[in-house]
Amino acid sequence: MRYSVLALTLCTLLFGLAAAQGTASHTVTISIPVVLRLSLEGGQTKAVPLQVEVANHSYRITPRDTVLKVFANSDWRLLVSYQGDPLALTWQLGDRSGRLRSYPQVLTGGEATRGWRPLTVSYALAQLPADGRYQGLVIYTLTRP
User: Fold this and answer.
1) CA neighbours within 13 Å on the CB side: how many for 29?
2) Per-residue pLDDT tens for 45-96?
3) Domain annotation for the chain: domains and CATH numbers
């Protein structure tokens, strides 16, 4: 009787261990949040105050350039728009250029940056307005495509 109880206990343990090994499964899920960061030279927010002085058929834009830095761990795109006095302003980034509009347009984009990626955007006038002082804001927005 002792041996049969011991044998029965041993069989139950072995069967339970075998069953536990055969049915165990695990699912591991890792969620990495999307990181998109935009930094502007001088610690400015996402809007760059722009001033234009026009006199005697020449002009001066302050600032002429804006240095931005993009940090992204996924695909990204950088949008630009302009709000202010009506001017025919243009932007240039590397070999790309376009006209600043009141609505957001794609300036550039890319894949994960693997660190901070510097970008220098230059401004110019496409057409001279009347002599005077003009001002506005160039607004940058970093988004996912």
Assistant:
1) 2
2) 688 999 999 999 999 999 999 999 999 999 999 999 999 999 999 999 999 9
3) 36-143 (2.60.120)
